[in-house]
C-alpha cells in the first residue's frame, strides 16, 4: 500500500513511500500484541462478535446535574441508566512518518505505562539511508513520544523507495529475577482457591509465554491482589464472554500487566468485565487490589491466570516463580504437566 506517493521532474525523481507493520503476535490473551494488531489494522473490518464492549452509565446527581461515565456510580440510591456500546481497541503503540524537507522522520508513540523494546527495519528499500542505520533496536520508556529515525535518499538524483517494519515486545531485555524471591499469593484466602493448571499444563501452558503459568480457580468476583509491587503497564477490562473457541475467545481475556523493579513482569488474566481498579502508569504495592477474578476469553470457568514473564530480546517468555507459601494441590482431573 502506498500511503504517500509524490512525483516531480527529472531534477527530483519519483520518491515513493509506503508503510507497513510487522508485529510479534503471541497467541495468548495476556500479551500486549493482541491490541497492537487490532489497533494497527484499523482499515480492516472487525467481526461483530469480536468487538470490545463498554458500558456507559447515565444518572443525575443530587443537584440535578446529568452525568455520563464508564464507571458505575457507587451511590446505590442513584437511578442509573446503563447502555452497552462498542469500544475501540486500545492502540498501545503508534508509528508516525512525517516529512521534513527531503527527509522522512519516524516517530514512535508509546501508550504503555512501562518499558517496551521496538525493532525498526527497512523493507524492500532502494537508494535509502537512515540515521541511525536500520535495523535498529529502540528502548521506549513509559508513555514516551520520540523521534527514532530520519530517512532520506542516499543519492537524491536517483529514484528511491522504502517500507518500514517494526516489531514490539513489552519490557526490557535485562530482567534477572532474584533466585530467592517469593511472590505474595494473589488472593486473600488461599483456602478458597484451587490449582486448575500448573507449570507445563497440557491444556494450554505449552508455549514459551505460558509454560510457567498457573491457573487458580476461584469464585467469580473475588478480589485479585498484586503478588508483587511495581508499575502498571497495561490494562484490558472491556471484554465479555468466554469459551473454548480459540478463534473467537483466544485473545479476549481482560488482564493487568505489572512491571517490577528488576524488569520482570506479572500478568493477571481472565479478569471480570470492567472490574479493574488500577490504571496504566500507577504504582502498586504487593497485596493491593487490582481487579476481580472473572471468566473472560479462552476459559472454561472463573479463574486467574498468573504468570511471570521477561522480555528475552525477541519474545515474551514465562519464567519459574514461587509463592511465599507454595501452591494449593492440583485439582482432581486437572491437566497434568505435558511431557
UniProtKB/TrEMBL annotation:
Residues 211-312 form the M23ase beta-sheet core domain. Residues 44-90 form the DUF4124 domain. It comes from the Bacteria. One of its GO terms (molecular function) is metalloendopeptidase activity. Pfam families: DUF4124, Peptidase_M23. Gene3D superfamilies: Glucose Permease (Domain IIA). InterPro entries: Cell_wall_metabolism_enzyme (IPR050570), DUF4124 (IPR025392), Dup_hybrid_motif (IPR011055), M23ase_b-sheet_dom (IPR016047). This is Peptidase M23. It comes from Ahniella affigens.
Amino acid at each position: 500500500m502506498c500511503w504517500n506517493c509524490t512525483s516531480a521532474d527529472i531534477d527530483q525523481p519519483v520518491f515513493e513511500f509506503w508503510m507497513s507493520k510487522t508485529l510479534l503476535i503471541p497467541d495468548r490473551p495476556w500479551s500486549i500484541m493482541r491490541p497492537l494488531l487490532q489497533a494497527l489494522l484499523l482499515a480492516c473490518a472487525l467481526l461483530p462478535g469480536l468487538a470490545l464492549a463498554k458500558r456507559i452509565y447515565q444518572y443525575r446527581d443530587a443537584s440535578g446535574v446529568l452525568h455520563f461515565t464508564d464507571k458505575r456510580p457507587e451511590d446505590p440510591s442513584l437511578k442509573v441508566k446503563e447502555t452497552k456500546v462498542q469500544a475501540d481497541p486500545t492502540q498501545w503503540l503508534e508509528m508516525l512518518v512525517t516529512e521534513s524537507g527531503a527527509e522522512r522522520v519516524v516517530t514512535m508513540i508509546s501508550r504503555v505505562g512501562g518499558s517496551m523494546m521496538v525493532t525498526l527495519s527497512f523493507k524492500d528499500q532502494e537508494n535509502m539511508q537512515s540515521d541511525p542505520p536500520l535495523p535498529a533496536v529502540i528502548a521506549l520508556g513509559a508513555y514516551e513520544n520520540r523521534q527514532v529515525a530520519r530517512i532520506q535518499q542516499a543519492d537524491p538524483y536517483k529514484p528511491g523507495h522504502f517500507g518500514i517494519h517494526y516489531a514490539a515486545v513489552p519490557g526490557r531485555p535485562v530482567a534477572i529475577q532474584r533466585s530467592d524471591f517469593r511472590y505474595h499469593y494473589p488472593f486473600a484466602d488461599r483456602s478458597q482457591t484451587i490449582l486448575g493448571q500448573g507449570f507445563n499444563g497440557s491444556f494450554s501452558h505449552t508455549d514459551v509465554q505460558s509454560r510457567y503459568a498457573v491457573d487458580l480457580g476461584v469464585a467469580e468476583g473475588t478480589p485479585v491482589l498484586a503478588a508483587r509491587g511495581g508499575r502498571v503497564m497495561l490494562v484490558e477490562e472491556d471484554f465479555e464472554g468466554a469459551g473454548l473457541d480459540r478463534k473467537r475467545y483466544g485473545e479476549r481475556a481482560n488482564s493487568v500487566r505489572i512491571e517490577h523493579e528488576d524488569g520482570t513482569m506479572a500478568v493477571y488474566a481472565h479478569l471480570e468485565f470492567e472490574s479493574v481498579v488500577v490504571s496504566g502508569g500507577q504504582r502498586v504495592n504487593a497485596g493491593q487490589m487490582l481487579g476481580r477474578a472473572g471468566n473472560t476469553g479462552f476459559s472454561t470457568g472463573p479463574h486467574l491466570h498468573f504468570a511471570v514473564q521477561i522480555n528475552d530480546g525477541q519474545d515474551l517468555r514465562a519464567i519459574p516463580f514461587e509463592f511465599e507459601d507454595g501452591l494449593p494441590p492440583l485439582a482432581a482431573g486437572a491437566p497434568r504437566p505435558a511431557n
